[in-house]
Write a structure and sequence with these properties.
This protein is of the alpha/beta class. The protein has 6 helices and 15 strands. Strand 1 (about 5), helix 1 (about 10-25) and strand 2 form a beta-alpha-beta unit. It is elongated.
């Protein structure tokens, strides 16, 4: 079992606990790889070549489990890094918002030992994959993809197609494409329903629509959504 380390390097507690974490790996002869974003930080307490390092985007292909050490933001960044590799991610919390990062960093040893004994289960969650016209790099999202009006004070017009068929046109502040995992976040605040995390569906939810009839729509997870935005200037 090879562990890959991705972390929020702005967290002071991470740097305080990193020597303990590395000591545990070494003592238990557990191989690990450190993200170069960690190793290149001036707070990194070890010599550059003391332990294996790799560019962050290479971590998922070189390990069996990714440790996302930080808060929920770090976990969501790890999701984008992992992408289609499907490498399991374990969230380790170092303070702050931690709905997805449940294991406290200062109490990691007992939980990691369970992993070495194969006393764990992998919970699969549906991911969104988004593409922007003209950009070949895919975007991955665990919670949602938001199309919004940015800094404009005007509403935008959004046309939506599902599998090549016209669905609806929205005049709103934006549009949320949400996963079941993300249904308890931004989408819920925008009037969307709560969905069971294990369901394979997506939610289309307009943000502050200029209409009395636009409501959230649930569609199959394997559907392809095409979104075209317009303003009065385009």
């Amino acid at each position: 079992m090879i562990f890959g380390l991705i972390a929020n390097s702005r967290k002071e507690l991470f740097w305080e606990e990193l020597p303990n974490l590395v000591e545990w790996f070494t003592r238990n002869q557990v191989p690990f790889i450190v993200s170069d974003r960690i190793a290149q930080n001036q707070l990194y307490p070890f010599s550059k070549n003391a332990y294996p390092t790799a560019p962050e985007h290479d971590i998922p292909s070189r390990c069996d489990i990714v440790l996302a050490i930080g808060g929920d933001g770090t976990f969501l960044r790890a999701v984008q890094v992992v992408g289609e590799f499907e490498t399991p991610i374990l969230g380790v919390n170092v303070g702050g918002l931690g709905f997805l990062t449940e294991i406290p960093l200062d109490d990691f040893a007992g939980e990691f030992e369970k992993i070495l004994r194969s006393e764990y289960r992998v919970e699969k969650r549906f991911l969104l994959k988004g593409m922007i016209d003209g950009d070949p790099s895919p975007l991955y999202a665990l919670n949602e993809i938001l199309i919004d009006k940015a800094s404009s004070v005007r509403v935008i017009q959004i046309q939506v197609e599902i599998d090549g068929q016209f669905l609806n046109s929205y005049i709103s502040d934006g549009l949320l494409i949400s996963t079941p995992t993300g249904s308890t976040g931004y989408s819920l605040s925008s009037g969307g329903p709560i969905m069971v995390p294990s369901t394979n569906v997506m939610l289309i939810n307009p943000v502050c629509p200029h209409s009395l009839t636009n409501r959230p729509i649930i569609i199959p997870a394997d559907a392809t959504i095409k979104i075209v935005t317009r303003t009065e200037y385009t």
